[in-house]
Amino acid sequence: MKRFTILSALMLTAVLAMAQQALWGGAQLVSPEIHPDNTVTFRLHAPKAVKVQVTGDFLPTQKMKTPYGEFDAPGTADLTEGKEGVWEYTTPSPLAPELYSYTFLVDGLKINDPANVYMIRDVASVTNVFIIGGGRADLYKVNAVPHGTLSKQWYHSPSLGIERRLTVYTPAGYETSGKRYPVFYLLHGMGGDENAWSELGRAAQIMDNLIAQGKAEPMILVMTNGNAAQEAAPGESSLGYVPPTMQLPKTMEGSFETHFPEVVKFIDKNYRTKANKKSRAIAGLSMGGFHSLHISKQYPDLFNYVGLFSAAIMPGKETKSPVYEEMEGKLKVQFAKKPALYWIAIGKTDFLYKANEEYRRLLDAKGYPYEYYESDEGHIWKNWRIYLTEFAPKLFRQ
Amino acid sequence: MKRFTILSALMLTAVLAMAQQALWGGAQLVSPEIHPDNTVTFRLHAPKAVKVQVTGDFLPTQKMKTPYGEFDAPGTADLTEGKEGVWEYTTPSPLAPELYSYTFLVDGLKINDPANVYMIRDVASVTNVFIIGGGRADLYKVNAVPHGTLSKQWYHSPSLGIERRLTVYTPAGYETSGKRYPVFYLLHGMGGDENAWSELGRAAQIMDNLIAQGKAEPMILVMTNGNAAQEAAPGESSLGYVPPTMQLPKTMEGSFETHFPEVVKFIDKNYRTKANKKSRAIAGLSMGGFHSLHISKQYPDLFNYVGLFSAAIMPGKETKSPVYEEMEGKLKVQFAKKPALYWIAIGKTDFLYKANEEYRRLLDAKGYPYEYYESDEGHIWKNWRIYLTEFAPKLFRQ
């Protein structure tokens, strides 16, 4: 067989690596480099650039004024040009444990870090990410614990008339345990889709870790697509490669909420669920909090646990769906049935803080019990990951 | 409830869109724009750039000389600066149906297209992608057909001593049919991982479409990670955010091959499979073809169908594993058991063409039957997608 030994393994590796390199250019620099003390260095090879900056949520925020109020925007920091066109920036102090997002600005042009292939899409933007471990952020990491299965599955919605995709997390051991599990429906915000919670939200990692530590019950997570006109995330549907910002109709006009029992029915048919109210939870962030509020009161016999994460408390005058009518009467019915948990969380600087405060005042006036969790900062993924780590351990303990 | 109507739906949309915009900058330009005649326009806003180019596999290749021979590298085309710093390039003629990858070069700096969030990672590089429909390329699209489920699942490998991730495609209807299905194990190439076939390979879309058209049997696809030292794709393992190029040991030294029966056992335990040789296929591209060759002859009672896609015909002198010893004797045993199909495919300009030619000569000399498929071009994903669409319809028809 010697004559078939055409290429040695080492040589093949070299050739393939070179071909690869030739095709798309390689990642030679290390960026970001996380130092042992948790300071971080960012590097970019850009010999012709005049100005290189990094922008991301690891930098102090800067205030940005808009007609709608003041927002916290991520800060920027300048990189310094060193040898051979390599620009560099090191954080002046260690970063706190967290999952961070960033991009570079090269002469004002936003680009991703070519040395870091770890990117996550959020609505119409793709950013690089990295994790500083420690504390709660260790829940966001893939650790050496039993891992659940993450599936992308399609269901038919008779009321919407289309096939739709959802993401399902089943806990480690689901396939062979023969057991039935409770189900937690977890909804995304405006501009998100069925990928949001498992990507930026680190939902699978958080559940793996909480379950492995005995801090949460083994449960099924169902992450739907809350844009009723969409089949699936942009690029994953038969709509093809339409820009995501053009794929957002039918988000807060009632049709997602009224179709939701179809999702529950599908999950109960396709998974070994505990198919009863006692074993179902629903929560969502921003628009998903709005959806959770309305779905849980519209169908008061479906969910025993409700979580509103930075919820968009609505509706406005434009929305005519019957879902949003008779809100007080429906809340009365919902709370008369004594849900096991009604949980409201928001950040101190969230632009929806006041709307949530007023909503809590209504619940207080009616004597409807709820738990309240207030965090720092505003309408950001950092908070939604925190809320998930706080909310999931409270579920299905009865 | 009027007092809780804090924000109208329209206003909230505007605020969220603005916050989003402020956070990461929006995608205002349309790029790529696919015109009705299948010419394509690329656009980039880069007012300070001196030179902007696009590079990708839709352009004529250019020859690149290396110590190992001549390779085809993607060509480049210059964009022209128009009004307000928007650069533009339109292909001079319509593009043929295909899934294409591209990036921009701004003053030599490789960047992704900020207007196109559809990106796929290949080894250590991330490129933007788009599909020109028609012909075979329609198999790569998400069409309005029943969709299978794509799952990321973890298994324990006793021989490798780690938890490892794999991707499983189950055909539409699997969850509720109660039926058993044949299994096709599909392996990636060097630098790839368990995500490669479902992303660049469009395996789920190809199988959905072939099955819907009645051109392939409903089957389970299992896409493993062929780097025996890896738990999972870079960023998805407890190794954390190590650059992918540093995560490639133990790829062609026998341990992946010898652990493979553990994968088959796991799949047969966790899925409703037809757990017999008649109902199993294995194929792979490049290094995965090498793995398929050696696994199928090492375990001649496991697989009835074998596919070598641009296979790396090996081994070299450095590899000492018993897996690679007594190759002729093992092939004799394998072919004496009359596999239903032994399928070899390669591109005319592939740098592994000669190695495959010599291997076919060996099979010819021994009188071992195989089918051969020769395509244009070389060692590229375009060919591997083609081979999958050719190979899958031949499986499990007996």
How many strands in all of chain A? 20
The helix content of chain A is 10-25%
Form type of chain A: globular
Distance between the termini of chain A: 67 Å
Number of helical segments with 4 or more residues of chain A: 9
Mean pLDDT of chain A, to the nearest integer, reads 88
What's the arrangement of secondary structure elements?
2 copies of one chain form a homodimer.
Chain A: H1 9-24, E1 33-34, E2 40-45, E3 52-56, E4 62-66, E5 69-73, E6 76-78, E7 80-81, E8 86-90, E9 98-106, E10 109-111, E11 119-122, E12 125-132, E13 149-157, E14 162-170, H2 174-177, E15 183-187, H3 196-199, H4 203-212, E16 220-223, H5 255-270, E17 280-285, H6 287-298, E18 305-309, H7 327-336, E19 341-347, H8 353-366, E20 371-375, H9 381-391
Parallel strand pairs in A: 15-16, 15-17, 17-18, 18-19, 19-20
Antiparallel strand pairs in A: 1-2, 2-8, 3-6, 3-9, 4-5, 7-8, 9-10, 9-12, 11-12, 13-14, 14-16
Helix pairs in contact in A: 5-6, 6-7
Polypeptide structure, described:
2 copies of one chain form a homodimer. Chain A has 398 residues and is an alpha+beta fold. Chain A folds into 2 domains: 27-133, Immunoglobulins (Immunoglobulin-like, Sandwich), CATH 2.60.40.10; 140-394, Rossmann fold, CATH 3.40.50. Helix content of chain A is 24%, strand content 27%. Chain A has helices at residues 9-24, 174-177, 196-199, 203-212, 255-270, 287-298, 327-336, 353-366, 381-391; strands spanning 33-34, 40-45, 52-56, 62-66, 69-73, 76-78, 80-81, 86-90, 98-106, 109-111, 119-122, 125-132, 149-157, 162-170, 183-187, 220-223, 280-285, 305-309, 341-347, 371-375. In chain A, the strands form 4 sheets. Chain A has an 8-stranded mixed β-sheet with strand order 13-14-16-15-17-18-19-20, with helices on both faces. In chain A, strands 3, 6, 9, 10, 11 and 12 form a 6-stranded antiparallel β-sheet that branches. In chain A, a hairpin with a 2-residue loop joins strand 9 and strand 10. The longest helix of chain A has 16 residues, at 9-24. Residues 1-27 of chain A have low confidence and may be disordered.
